Amino acid sequence: MSDPRIRLAAAAASTLVLLVLPFYLDAFWLQTGLFAMSAAIGAIGLNLLTGATGQLSMGHAFFLAVGAYGYVYLASGSGPRLAGLGLPTPLAFLGAIVLAGVAGGLFSPIAGRLRGTYLGIASLALIFIGQHLLFNAESVTGGFNGRDVPPLEIAGFRFDDAPELVVFAVPLGALERLWFLAVALLVPAVWIARGILRGRPGRALNTIRDHEVAAAVMGVPVARYQAGVFVLSSMYAGAAGALLALAFRRTVPDYFGMFLSLDYLAMIVIGGLGTAAGAVAGAVFVSVLPQLLTRYGDDLPLVAAPGSGGVSPAEAARILYGAAVVAVVLFLPGGLAGTWTRLRTAASRRRASRPLTRFEQEEQPI
């Protein structure tokens, strides 16, 4: 698929399929798809940081929390117990993304001075700081019980169940409307990331990942690129967090913990480091698997309802994609995206090496 026209046609067809799906899916699959698309946006940002640049971050959940709670605080009005700015919801959504980017920019000087495991441990500290703030800054976050999320409203159109909206005899509720919003965010997120990775910035990021000293000798402004990609990754996480808040309709501090950061690391490893397509594939795998086990767990051995003594769907999902991470590291270093590329290359070589049929020989130019 090296021809740009073929890639463009494939991207257009994929987008069209995503736009048509809400008219046929039930609420379970709509919600699962929303989680997958929001996870894909966040995973793309982490893949730019960790996969392309080599900066290990275990605090990605912190920036998702900034995006989620930033949107709620900016969009909600003030009350007797909870504070808020009451901004228009589109402005609040953009403000949440900017807040996440600012948080990433404030941490980027620390990230620029640390490498490898030390950076991972330092970024992990963000999770504990974030959890402390989420549970104790009750006027902003709502504390342990969280806060209700105001529905997004753009030019009078509400991403909520009301007012009623029917298109092609299909009622479009909050899930369907948020699905279209997720597609509108995911498509440019993938396009921007692919442009960065395929262009000069991507080559510079890969050089920094492979050999930072060599990159500096070649004239690459290492500190500037590292700070910029950390801010960009945080903004991706902020957008994913705000979208998750709209999908959940209530923010809860427990969700934005260490396990969420580990999930995102699993996404980019399973999908393939350093590619936007790999981030999307890994996000779909990791986010959809628990939902499937929850829905169909009664028909599967060893999977039981939470608290019943067996392995819960969430635990089973972590065991499975933990095993997938090990399998990828040992046998598929390129992840799902790399496996697809190898299969496509092998198929192309087989087609090129097979003998031509008589009809194909007659069609060859003289």
TrEMBL record:
CDD domains given in the database record: TM_PBP1_LivM_like (cd06581)
Annotated localization: Cell membrane
Residue ranges crossing the lipid bilayer per the database entry: 32-49, 61-79, 91-111, 118-135, 178-197, 233-252, 264-289, 319-341
- Ribosomal protein listed as a keyword: no
**GO MF:** branched-chain amino acid transmembrane transporter activity
Identify the domain of life. Bacteria
Topologically, how does it sit relative to the membrane? Multi-pass membrane protein
Look up keyword Nucleotide-binding and say if it applies: no
Keywords, A to Z? Cell membrane, Membrane, Transmembrane, Transmembrane helix
Annotated Gene Ontology cellular component terms: plasma membrane
Principal place where this protein is found?
membrane
Q: What is this protein called?
A: Branched-chain amino acid transport system permease protein
Q: Which organism is it from?
A: Actinomadura coerulea
